[in-house]
Design goal:
The complex is a heterodimer of chains A (about 325) and B (about 250).
Chain A (H helix, E strand, L loop, with lengths): L1 E6 L1 E2 L2 E2 L1 H16 L3 E7 L16 E5 L9 H15 L1 E7 L2 H14 L2 E6 L10 E6 L4 E7 L4 E5 L14 E4 L10 E7 L11 E5 L10 H10 L2 E4 L1 H5 L20 E5 L5 H7 L4 E6 L6 H4 L2 E4 L2 H16 L2
Helix pairs in contact in A: 2-3, 4-8
Chain B lengths: L1 E5 L2 E3 L7 E2 L4 E2 L6 E3 L1 H17 L4 E8 L4 H10 L3 E6 L5 H13 L5 E5 L10 H9 L3 E11 L2 E8 L2 E8 L2 E5 L11 H7 L4 E4 L8 E7 L8 E2 L5 H10 L5
Parallel strand pairs in B: 1-6, 1-8, 6-7, 7-13, 8-12, 9-12
Antiparallel strand pairs in B: 2-5, 3-4, 9-10, 10-11
Helix pairs in contact in B: 2-5, 3-4
Classes of the chains: A alpha/beta (about 325), B alpha/beta (about 250).
Chain lengths: ~325, ~250
């Protein structure tokens, strides 16, 4: 038996969410007195042996080109074969775009209970109970997995990465790969941007910015902090910013270490997308803005005066 | 074309979340229920648009729930579904629900099955993928754009930091999110018409759930905001660096 971690890659590099999943999976293996192993699909340019630093003893690779691109049906099929080969008892995914696509299929294939959106290690003192995010960040549920094989999909930025100096053994796995039915015909990526789902710091703007021409206020601070940028729904709906930046109930739900809300009043639907952030800073001229109730730090003031000063102070602190 | 749209009943986005029975049940008293926004705004409206372009299209709605789901099913019919099926069962877990929907889907040969990307209560993002596996169909998750031409679907799917374009032959399962369509309000004609549209109730098949909720908990309350004077933003940066240690 073992714990198997699906290590998700993009353009030949293992994603940050997968390092979290690996650290988490290694800890689960420790709780169960077993070992953690990773599995990687497609061609990867990273040094996979170095993934031993996250507690993985072995990395299984399937470098076949047929699994360079995601078809959830193919991936679930191949993973199910791997789980059988290694007699894996727990499978861990990052609850990101690919994890959400594959984990539910694998759950059906293996009749293995799935907890998606896990935020903590399983409690194995009485059964196998995993805490997950529910009600869009407004609550948690403790969910028991009642099957022999268990699948956990870990929410991004919910588990701290532990690193050691260890290395892993890397071995190619020979598995039958069925033909893909989903064909990827184009990939459109914004180059050089930090994906919101992976960002540790997010600077977000709302209607208080008054127009897209003022967005340098947001991007300047984000640049100084090495942060990703986001926006509220009205801003995306008015096409001031692209839709993929919209965080909130109907946009992306994020949980960065630091969320800067600038000129956002904090409607409950917006909070649902950001309330799992570890530290929330609100800057708004309206002292009655509901966002202040959910904030850790706040400044009541004119964003056009305050934000550039914050940017300067950050730059000074970082010595740039 | 025959389209199945899966709709879930969820608390309104502004609902206060509390629990009863020793934190094992969501407290429903006084809570307004709605169609899960992803199911309604994106999955259902896109199905309606497809029907508007091709009148031969049939839209079926499916909900797994008790009789108290019927108001939201009627609303979905008012928006534009042709007929609805309610599987008379209380949700046990995602696998249980997906299995009930799969049972109905197997009898009807749908060309397309739409779900929302997740429900706003359980946040599982699982029904679409489970359903696809149960029906042995391709699955494209987190769609931001959906077009169909003959038997070929072209779908934009969210990936980290962008989108990719997928091409798939029908039949398939798609989970929908923002971008696929725009929210609509039902009109009077739709509301009147919905009253007489068929709403079939079927009993569930026996399925064992794979997981069970042991308890719910609320996040610890925030300590309260620390306000920093507007003329001293440098102090905020110092606190974030030295006290909160976030950079």
């Amino acid at each position: 038996m073992s714990v198997l971690i699906f290590l998700d890659q993009s353009e030949g590099h293992i994603k940050k969410n997968s390092f979290e999943a690996a650290s988490y999976g290694a800890k689960v293996a420790e709780l169960l007195n077993t070992t953690a192993e990773g599995i990687v699909f497609g061609k990867v340019n990273d040094d996979l042996a170095a993934l031993g630093a996250y507690g993985l003893k072995k990395i299984h690779t399937i470098t076949n080109e047929a699994v360079n691109e995601l078809d959830s049906q193919v991936f679930a099929n191949v993973l199910a074969q791997a789980v059988g080969t290694f007699a894996a008892k727990v499978i861990v995914f990052a609850n990101n775009v690919d994890g959400k696509s594959i984990a539910p299929r694998l759950s059906v294939k293996l009749k293995a209970g799935l907890v998606s959106g896990a935020v903590a290690l399983p409690d194995v003192s009485n059964g196998f109970v995993v805490k997950k995010n529910v009600f869009s960040g407004k609550a948690f549920a403790n969910v028991a997995i009642n099957t022999e094989i268990k699948i956990i999909s870990l929410n991004p930025n919910s588990y701290k990465i532990n690193k050691t100096e260890d290395t892993a053994e890397v071995a190619e796995l020979n598995i039958q790969i069925p033909e893909a039915k989903v064909k990827v015909t184009a990939v459109n990526k914004v180059a050089g941007e930090i994906p919101l789902s992976e960002a540790e710091i997010v600077v977000s703007g709302g209607r208080g910015l008054k127009g897209p021409e003022n967005w340098n206020l947001i991007t300047d601070l984000a640049k100084a902090l090495g942060a990703a940028t986001a926006c509220s729904r009205p801003v995306a709906d008015a096409d001031w910013r692209p839709h993929h930046e919209h965080v909130g109930q109907t946009g992306l739900a994020i949980a960065p270490n630091l969320y800067f809300a600038i000129g956002i009043s904090g409607a409950i639907q917006h909070l649902a997308g950001v309330n799992r952030s570890k530290v929330i800073v609100v800057i708004n001229k309206d002292p009655e803005a509901p966002f202040f109730k959910a904030a850790d730090y706040g400044i009541v003031g004119d964003i056009f005066e305050v934000v550039p000063k914050i940017t300067e102070a950050v730059k000074k602190l970082k010595g740039v | 074309m025959k389209i199945l749209v899966c709709i879930s009943k969820t608390p309104d986005t502004t609902a206060k979340i509390t629990f009863t029975d020793n934190n094992t049940k969501f407290a429903e008293a006084g809570v307004q229920f709605i169609i899960n926004p992803y199911d309604e705004w994106y999955a259902l409206v896109r199905a309606i648009q497809i029907k508007e372009a091709d009148a031969a299209t049939q839209i079926h709605l499916i909900n797994v729930g008790g009789a108290d789901s019927e108001p939201i099913i009627r609303k979905a019919l008012a928006l534009g579904g042709d007929e609805a099926i309610r599987v008379n069962a209380i949700s046990q877990d995602s696998f249980y629900i997906a299995s009930q929907i799969a049972e109905v889907a197997k009898q009807n040969n749908y060309d397309l099955i739409f779900t929302g990307k997740e429900t706003i209560d359980y946040n599982g993002s699982s029904i679409g993928g489970m359903l696809a596996e149960l029906l042995e169909l391709p699955y494209v998750s987190l769609a931001t754009k959906f077009d169909v031409n003959g038997t070929t679907a072209t779908i934009n799917r969210e990936i980290d930091g962008g989108e990719e374009v997928n091409e798939v032959q029908l039949p398939l399962v798609v989970s929908c999110q923002k971008g696929v369509a725009e929210q609509r309000i039902p009109n009077m004609k739709g509301i009147m018409g919905a009253r007489t549209k068929p709403l079939k109730v079927v009993e569930p098949v026996a399925v064992d759930a794979l997981t069970s909720v042991v308890s719910f908990e609320l996040p610890p309350p925030k300590a309260g905001v620390k306000l920093i004077p507007a003329d001293n933003p440098e102090e905020l940066v110092r606190l974030l660096h030295e006290e909160a240690k976030v950079f």
